[in-house]
Amino acid sequence: MLDSLLKIFSKEKSGKVAKRRLQMVLIQDRASVSPEMMNQLRDDIIQVISKYMVINQSDMEITLENVDDSVALVANIPVQNMKHH
Amino acid sequence: MSEVIVITSGKGGVGKTTTTANIGVGLAQRGKSVVLIDTDTGLRNLDLLLGLENRIMYDLVDVTEGRIPYKKALVRHKKYESLFLLPTSQIKDKSAVNPAQLIVLCDELRKEYDYVIIDCPAGIEQGFKTAIAAADRAIVVTMPEVSAVRDADKIIGELGRAEKDNISLIVNRIRPQMVESGDMMDMSDIDDILAVKCIGQVPDDEMVVTSANRGEPLVGNPKSQAGRAYANIVGRILGEDIPFMEFEKEGLFKRLKKALGI
Q1: How many angstroms separate the Cα of B11 from the Cα of each of B29, B144, B147?
Q2: B97-107: b or e for each residue (b if 16 or more CB lie within 10 Å)?
Q3: What ipTM score was computed for the predicted complex, to two decimals?
Q4: Phi-psi region of A30 (alpha: psi -120 to 50; beta: other; left: phi over 0)
Q5: According to CATH, what is the number of the domain B3-260?
Q6: Of A67, B16, B102, B121, which is least surrounded by CB within 10 A?
Q7: CB atoms B193 and A23 under 8 Å
Q8: Is residue B168 within a helix (H) or strand (E), and if so which, with residue range?
Q9: What gap in Å lies between CA B8 and CA B139, rounded to an integer?
């Protein structure tokens, strides 16, 4: 799967590669979010959610994604159990 | 009604000063009165591209520091009488002029001239902030290369934060042969990425170099593709609806000659 993807990309013209790479890097540039800030955000989210649920921290994913012309914060946080007060 | 336009890019070497010189001359050819302000203090070049380097008596810093009235520092173009250059200092640095001073100066110039065009230095620091302060609209110059497009995006963001919302784009130094073979982004690719209204695409043209050598901007020169492209840009700045030109491709014979170096 990965190999076939790589094959496709290696045949891709460099103009298209440039466009694709720019579109990816500009998502991060525009959101102006540093990796440090993403880590901080991740830690804060863990703290808040952990008040209510037991979550699998090592499998959670937090990313910024480009949806049309706007940026979305997408979080995938596996819940292991509910906390009952 | 007069307009203050800043020409900016973020990245150096994409053709800001060439664009400024050609737009200035082009507007003068169309009968407009124009002042070009070089704000690239310490690294001035607009004088050289206009062939006015030997006529400079005073500079922008003399004006903003109040030593002389601006009219004394303006250099009138040899050929186009309604075109003036306000050169900057080659000795001082970017901290010599601040945004408030440039706003005061441009408000004075608005009373007398149709267009004030500001050539912005590269970068996003003090010099950039000063250059954009007085502008009603911004023209961002970029090239079909990843670093130039990324920097243009950054500059567009900075302009937005400074509440400069009238932004248009010029894609400079396009190589039609490479675009055709898929090895260079074209205007519509860059349009997709940056989402800013494009007012010009200028092909890479050897005559840009020779015209700089002579200090004679090539806008309007029918023999040059870039000259025609700049004339179209000037028309669009004046509000005309001009379709984008098709680039002439180099024929096999010319390419062969070039490859053989003859």
Answers
A1: 29, 12, 8
A2: beeebbeebbe
A3: 0.81
A4: alpha
A5: 3.40.50.300
A6: A67
A7: yes
A8: strand B167-174
A9: 6
Question: Which residues of chain B are within 8 Å of residue A15 when distances are taken between CB atoms?
Answer: 144, 178-179, 182-186, 189
| Burial tier of B194 (Cβ tally within 10 Å: 0-12, 13-18, 19+) | buried
Residues A36 and A49: their CA atoms lie apart, in Å, by 20
Nearest chain A residue to B157, by CA: A30
> B35-84 pLDDT, tens per residue?
999 999 999 999 999 999 999 999 999 999 999 999 999 999 999 999 99
**Hey, are the CB atoms on B146 and A22 less than 8 Å from each other?**
yes
Mean of per-residue pLDDT scores for chain B: 94
Residue ranges per domain, chain B? 3-260
* DSSP E strands, A9-84: 53-55, 61-67, 70-76, 79-82
- How far, in Å, CA of B14 to CA of B146, rounded? 12
How far is it, in rounded angstroms, from Cα B82 to Cα A48?
A: 66
Helix (H, G, I), strand (E, B) or coil at A70: strand
Instruction: Find the angle CA(B35)-CA(B37)-CA(B43) to the nearest 5 degrees.
Output: 150
3-state secondary structure of A72: strand
pTM listed for this prediction: 0.81
CB contact under 8 Å between A15 and B149, yes or no, is no
Interface test with A, best of B124, B147, B149, B158 (most A CBs within 10 A): B149
